[in-house]
Amino acid sequence: MQILLRSTLFNVLFYLTTLVYLIVALPTFALPRRAIIEVAKSWARTTGWLLRTICAIEVEYRGLEKITSGALIVASKHQSSWETLALLPLLADPVFILKRELMWIPVFGWLTIKGQMIPVDRGKRSVTLAAMAARARAALAERRQIIIFPEGTRRPAGAEPSYKYGVAYLYAQTGTPCLPIALNSGLFWPRRKFLRYPGTIRLEVLDPIPPGLEQGAFMERLQHAIETATARLIAEGERELARAGITPATRRAA
Fold it and tell me: What is the pLDDT of residues 169-212, one digit of tens each?
């Protein structure tokens, strides 16, 4: 019952604060692009505070010293909405690769355009990849950090991996180092679920992959690094939840 009440309060406040931030962000249309990035980072920090204060969800970051401020491809595991927010404050000038449809959402979508996010049309694969690479090169030339979720969509914690070709294409076409990220956020903020479970989300920045690898070798190295670390982080999270009496069966039934 306590988890339900806390989750309800968090969700209400999360959507209210999101609405407030959308309103606050409106003047950034008349400001330089970096203004909307800073508003988005503030939104992410506020959400983190709500999670910690209301839902008793802490965050442990590992390997942050591996993040550089220059041009970079950040390839992150994607289990939850949490990482779409949490990655923002960690990077100097982040840019997401996202579904084109998100840019059609009133206000929110317009702000992603203002922030020069990179849209992907999943229905036009070859054209989309070429356009994505061109936009990515322009962003990297400005020393931005490109965030891509190699599996393309959120997948439940512990699900079989399903990596897509886009991240390898981006890596090969731009000649940019890739920074893998593992996490266990899906245990505490599950996709398509209302409840938020108390505990510690762990995000681990792994060793960067230098440019120059053949695409197949790159994909093998990337997936092995992320999946190995993610499995370890999930095991840590599962043990923590079990001590609190929250089992996988409990979460599936919620």
Answer: 999 999 999 999 999 999 999 998 999 999 999 999 999 999 99
- Global pTM reads 0.93
Q: Which helix (H) or strand (E) holds 240?
A: helix 215-243
Identify the residue whose tokens are 């390997």.
Answer: 63
24 within domain boundaries = no
In the predicted model, what is the mean pLDDT of the chain? 94
Place of tokens 């039934």: 253
Indicate whether 124 pLDDT > 80.
no
Question: Would you say residue 22 lies in a domain?
Answer: no
pLDDT of residue 129: 86
The H or E element spanning position 180 is: strand 178-183
Structural domain of residue 117, as residue ranges?
Answer: 58-253
Is residue 30 included in any domain, yes or no?
Answer: no
What is the pLDDT, as a whole number, of residue 251? 77
Q: Quick check: is 80 in a domain?
A: yes
Longest dimension (CA), the chain: 53
Rounded alpha-carbon distances, angstroms, from residue 20 to 112, 146, 250? 16, 26, 34
Q: What are the helix (H) ranges across 33-165?
A: 33-55, 82-86, 108-114, 125-141
What's the structural domain count of the chain?
Answer: 1
The partner residues of 151 in beta bridges, in order of sequence, read none
